[in-house]
Input
Amino acid sequence: MKGLVKFYHPDETLIYHIRKSFCKVVFLNNQNSLVVEIESDDDLDHVEEDSYQNDYPQIFMNIDDFAVSVKSVNQLAGKVFRIPSSEEKENEHGEPDEVYYTNLNINDEDDLETDENEVKFGRDGKGNLKMLWTGICEDFVAGNPDPLKFKVSCIFSEDENEEEFDED
Output
């Protein structure tokens, strides 16, 4: 469970260390679905005193219920998915419902959508599943109309001695 989340604000890059993460493929509503959760720690030792990040010490990101063509996590390596933030689907009553696939939660308060999500899976040198998730989100730092780019680099491993993973 090592990795980083970076938000590329024009004034500074906000860097979050991943504390907890998991990735699953679950069978839900007659289809295989991808579920990913990323939670940062709230340690700000690496952050300057005047950094925007001091106002946003912790983030939580997830992908939920996105249909995939694989049956297990082991089959994700080598796959690339382009995931919309949401889409309209028909519910069991034949009415349209908005289904959200991605979410960014800031400070356990504000839920933001992410867009232009691209998620790539591979393996590290030890055979662990790794993920690179890129996209954009609302500028939660300054409220500018231009979205912020973000990147999540993560290795799904239980080994606490893994080196920090950051794929540029």
Notes: The domain at 2-156 is CATH 2.40.128 (Lipocalin). The first strand starts at residue 2 and ends at 8.
